[in-house]
Amino acid sequence: MSFKIACYMDIGLRENQEDCIFVNGKIYQQNTFKRPSAQTIKGPRGLFAVCDGMGGHSRGEWASRFVCEKLKEYRKEITCSRENLENMFKKLQQKVEEEGVVNCGTTVACVVSEGDHIMICNTGDSRVYKITGDDILYLSHDHSLVQSMADQGYLSQEDIFRHPNRNVIEFGIGDIFKQRWDRDGNVVHIKDDILHTGEYYLLCTDGVNDVLRDSEIYDILHADPFGRVDEFIGHIRKGMKDNFSFILIGLC
């Protein structure tokens, strides 16, 4: 199995780039790409992630990059096993706590592949979408205040998009989430999936889905995702405020 990849990151209107991207061993954290990075990943194994740091100043930058560096270190140990992935996230949290850096955290949204077996996993509100010929599927699950309210039936997805507190995160990796880890243990969202020809994954930080509704993402990308990457970036830039980053994945 081989994957075609396109990735991009933009500092938006922020002073710091707190996003970090991991593409099967390569780490990206820069203010703005001059153009989308395109590459082919060959082989049966793949690990892809987007991280959105939080904490202000350099703390968010540090947290997202630290997690990507650990993913690179652990990459050969990571498998498409729920237990393995749960242990990996727990290990990430332990390593961050051991560093003693305070008041910071990061989201993590991953796609892990072994042959045709794929697992989606995330903490926080960075997302993994699957774009098919006739739909966009939200495979990750936000650990956010507004998503918790939606899960209880108090908000619709449209309410979430317009809600003033939609960026309040309830769980992730970092010392700011230590109480939740200690109280609830590992509540990482993990989902099995299979990617077919003509289907695509979009991993993105909230700088993307805070600007574009799911239906708008689908309308822009579904007909020719890799051919419309520049158009997709242009639409996000029209309304951007935050950093935004994404990875687009398809089969070769």
Short overview:
The chain is α+β, with helices and mostly antiparallel strands and 252 residues long.
Any key phrases for this structure?
Phosphatase 2c, domain 1, 8 helices, alpha+beta, six-stranded antiparallel beta sheet, seven-stranded antiparallel beta sheet, 252 residues, 31% helix, globular, 13 strands, 30% strand
How would you sum up this structure, described in words?
The strands form two sheets. Strands 2, 3, 5, 6, 7, 8 and 11 form a seven-stranded antiparallel beta sheet that branches. A six-stranded antiparallel beta sheet has the order 4-1-13-12-9-10. The protein starts with a strand and ends with a strand. It contains eight helices and 13 strands. With 252 residues, it is α+β, with helices and mostly antiparallel strands. The protein has a single domain (2-251), classed as Phosphatase 2c, domain 1, CATH 3.60.40.10. The chain has helices at 59-74, 82-99, 145-151, 157-162, 178-184, 206-209, 214-221, 229-239; strands at 2-10, 19-23, 26-28, 37-42, 45-54, 105-106, 108-114, 117-123, 127-131, 136-138, 189-193, 200-204, 244-251. Helices cover 31% and strands 30% of the residues. The chain is globular and about 45 Å long.
